[in-house]
Amino acid sequence: MKRKLTDAEGAEELKGEKQEKKVKKEKRNTAAPVPANFADLGLDARLLKAVSTEKFAKPTLVQARAIPIAVEGKDVLARAKTGTGKTLAFALPILNAILRRKAASKGSKRTSALILVPTKELATQITATLTKFSTFCAQDIRSENITKKEDAAVTRARLGEKPDVVIATPSRASQWINSNDLKLDELAHLVIDEADLVLNYGYEEDLEAIAAALPAGVQKIFTSATLRTEVDTLTGLFFKDKSAQPTVLDLSTEEADEQTKLAQYVLKTAEQDKFLLIYTIFKLQLIKGKVIMFVADIDRCYRVKLFLEQFGIRSCVLNSELPVNSRLHVVEEFNRGVYDIIIAADENEVIGDESSKRKRRKTKKQLEREAEKKAEKKVEPADDEAATGGEATETQELNGDGEVAEGDEDKDESEPQQSAPAATQKRSTRTDREYGVSRGIDFRNVACVLNFDLPTTSASYTHRIGRTARAGQTGMALSFYIPPSEYRKHKPTSIESSQYDETVLEAIKKEQGANGAEVAEWAFDMAKLEGFRYRLADALRAVTRIAVREARTKELRHELIKSEKLKRHFEENPDELKHLRHDTESHAARQQPHLKHIPDYLLPAGGQAAVKADVGFVGIRKDDGKANRLRKARAFNKGRGKGRIAQGKGLDPLKSLNARGRGKK
């Protein structure tokens, strides 16, 4: 019989096991010396020239570790935080292998690489990256993005040319593989970017079909910002042979040792005070620079946008309901500095393969509503048509309700809006499941990520804050959370997910602490904002549920017109596309001009400087007036007299009439 260990012996044995695991991990990550520059990575000279043109001085940690292994043709599973250049870590080895293969066998056409991504936005971004770094070998490498919404004959023709690299979501790739238009017989590389998210979007069946169609000997590269159980599922699909497992690069230890340039803050607040805070933050410029504000659902996007419009603060929305061309244009214009504030619905928490989570969150009221809908389905068609009054209106169709609105105008405005899970489930037929904004998209020069609504998981928080402090720049993440004592105290601004804010916050602090980061309380004195509170009430009263619905419908109709009817025109005249704006006022809510300026008597003692004293943060973008040149020029031209009532003696023909003639008195 084995002797039971004493406490001291047990502690010593546990310490030995941890040390052994640490040594194995270090051996796995440091098997080869880390190259100091791109020239030491064994890449083609044309790729090195493109890297030099983009002014990349030296490879990041994930690039220095992953590229040499991938160049050797080995399978790689890399985990690195967002903003560290994972796209280039798999793009350069693939381009390098294709160039070598074409140099050995000239004239042969075949699809060598398939890159799978969870969202259309990420597919577009990766396609742009491949085009950029193959500039000096464009005749030899051709990439095609087949996630675009286009005629099937056009996609079939593009695939018929056998492009070297195909970028697609798993569902699109599986569709074209089944139709035999995308041939994988000669495939050499398979990449899955944001691997842990792919399964959350409901792609498991598509991945199984793709794995079955792969030929033997395909190099597989998986990248992700987190390593979770989803990645284990993927490795089980693509690495069924236990003897041929990928090289795992988990860079969390090295990243924890690096000095972080991201400041993380949280602020405990009441539900209606979230709106008070964003009003003062943007109106008093407490945070300077570009801001991405994450909210829980699509309705919340427009509620916040309409609220900010009351004070003359421009913003644009980004959600899965908008056409993909509009979403891509918003991101592009944001990166160019045209927009300062994006209100994004982070819907990847409630779409895809997360039905079990939604079921756990259902309230008694939601279950009763579902039971009522099931009972309504049993009504005879004739009775049902009479009850609903015939066909639904255009507004209701665009709103994605799928049924006639049940007297929204007569409902009490104090009733809370629908929670994120229920709202997204209700409009699942209208939204794009291949949408994602908190993952993979390269938002540039973001000064602050503002979590207006706290995410429901710590993993989602990690990916949200990864939109700032990228590529060595500084950044700030500010998150609002609702304590249980304040939950449902102000029903018009309440959402169901905020009930679990403190539990989620504990998980966030635990995970960030394990990575060597600190989530601190934001030192802000709410008492200084009491003078603004009556304006908050005026603005919130104007943003009714009817106004939110109208703004959502108007925005969708406007974007559809721009996206579909003018698509060919903009393809022929690309310069005109930049004149479209996404941050125009919707005017769906009642306009109150007096709210757009702040009188001095509202400011606390010491004026605006007193409010700024506790913030201590300066954005990364300089306020030099050049970023919004186009906007200022338009405002100047508009104010030169166009549409203005003529004033003054010289502008009144009755007062300036001279019967004797010009120049005579």
UniProtKB/TrEMBL annotation:
It catalyses: ATP + H2O = ADP + phosphate + H(+). One of its GO terms (molecular function) is ATP binding. It is found in: Nucleus. Its main location: nucleus. Residues 36-64 form the DEAD-box RNA helicase Q domain. Residues 403-415 have a biased composition (Acidic residues). It holds the Pfam family DEAD. A motif (Q motif) lies at residues 36-64. It is an enzyme of class 3 (hydrolase). Residues 337-527 form the Helicase C-terminal domain. One of its GO terms (biological process) is gene expression. Residues 1-31, 353-433, 638-665 are annotated as: Disordered. GO terms for cellular component: cytosol; nucleus. Keywords: ATP-binding, Helicase, Hydrolase, Nucleotide-binding, Nucleus, Ribosome biogenesis, RNA-binding. Residues 67-245 form the Helicase ATP-binding domain. Residues 416-426 have a biased composition (Polar residues). Belongs to the DEAD box helicase family. DDX56/DBP9 subfamily. ATP-binding RNA helicase involved in the biogenesis of 60S ribosomal subunits and is required for the normal formation of 25S and 5.8S rRNAs. This is RNA helicase. The lineage of its organism: Eukaryota, Fungi, Dikarya, Ascomycota, Pezizomycotina.
